[in-house]
């Protein structure tokens, strides 16, 4: 019997419905029992040549069948509703957990494997909860009382039946551990194949450009072979399990029937008792047969259970125990107070005693060579991680004191890697503010230098831009993300290489327009290009995880530091 703690935990959300569905399934089983007894009485009358009362018995059988049909329909509706509730609740819980942990790669998982868990794995839990689990409970509860009932009518028949019934109930449990191991291997192979296929689809332009399609196809074929072998290995074990169950069912039925007939022939059992024993023998094994039939419904859920548990319990990165709302009435000051941070597994710190203040309502640029710690610093502000030493303060309050949701809602971010959804331009913009008016959309798009280009699209703002904005150029995607951040109207605006995909000739103009549109907000701008930061109110230069200099464009350019060398390198290029 496949009982997994993770699946039982997930089922608690619909425990009342599941208990009702199980009770109704028990009622359906009782109608089978009633039908068996009624048929036994009818057959006994026919054997004795009695016709009195026979129509009433047959009418009762028909009525029992009708009641069973109604109960079965009712039970199925409730079970489906319970499975749906569990599926929706579990999927919501996993999505919330993903929101805490960040992208799948940050939790050590591949996107395709996570997709398989969220979609196929959770669907398997639905089947496990709605079909397998109620039947498992009935299988635990019903056969032994029926065996006792047979014992009252024909003790020797019950004695012949008992070993077979116990074998049918207990023998498959011997294989459960092996089945669980085979299931984990099967699910691991399925996740790997799903992840590789998703990666191949997303990277197809690169595969074609590098002539790697053939090698990728061979790797996918190998993955498919691994999944096939894992599936066959699982089926071998399940066939042995099914064979033992069938042997026990058929052998027990034959043994009980032979003993009952011998008892009837010797006159020890009446005709009525003999027929009752024969009918009840079949009913003793019915729950076992039904559970075997539902085995495939529950197996996918059990196979995916470990993956679901790993995703649900993944380390969220930072604790969300802050209680302050980030409801700043005006643009707040952002301060890094001697911040130190070392990435997991790294030998040297990414940030070492970084301290500076981004004044409220002004633009502070952060520049430096690659690996200086610029993006790491912004990640600490958004609490993707917490500093090892020092503090990050917003409006004089440590970021750890704010609730994560409110902190992140108060900070609009545009990163180098933008993500757009398969929806219209307007819908992608309104992700930041669902109630935004069309005029607000147009204003934000103008500030990002995109309004005129949107109007030239076939449907304007109603144009569907495809997955990841595939119908737009890289610069257009980035400017759409900029417009979305401006539309959010958050008190703090963070631009992390936000214009890296924009043509250099247009970059200075877009940045200038952005800063004008963001007037009154606290802006943090990370960039490599000098054109993106020269209009900032102050510039912080990082080098090797430390603050090398702080000043404005003119002062830093006049010096002989990292900033001047970066500017010189740009001019030389």
Structure description:
With 573 residues, this protein is an alpha/beta fold. Helices cover 63% and strands 10% of the residues. Strands 6-7-8-3-9-10 form a six-stranded mixed sheet, with helices on both faces. A four-stranded antiparallel sheet has the order 2-1-4-5, covered by helices on one side. Strand 7, helix 17 and strand 8 form a beta-alpha-beta unit. Helix 2 runs antiparallel to helix 10, helix 7 packs antiparallel against helix 9 and helix 7 packs across helix 10. The model has no long low-confidence stretch (mean pLDDT 84).
List the helices and strands and how they pair.
Layout: H1 5-11, H2 15-47, H3 54-101, H4 111-141, H5 143-153, H6 155-174, H7 176-202, H8 204-209, H9 213-265, H10 271-312, E1 334-341, E2 351-358, E3 363-367, H11 374-381, E4 389-394, E5 397-398, H12 404-409, E6 411-414, H13 425-430, H14 438-447, H15 451-455, H16 474-488, E7 492-496, H17 504-517, E8 522-526, E9 538-543, E10 546-551, H18 553-558, H19 562-572
Parallel strand pairs: 3-8, 3-9, 6-7, 7-8
Antiparallel strand pairs: 1-2, 1-4, 4-5, 9-10
Helix pairs in contact: 2-3, 2-4, 2-10, 3-4, 4-7, 4-10, 5-6, 5-10, 6-9, 6-10, 7-9, 7-10, 9-10, 14-16
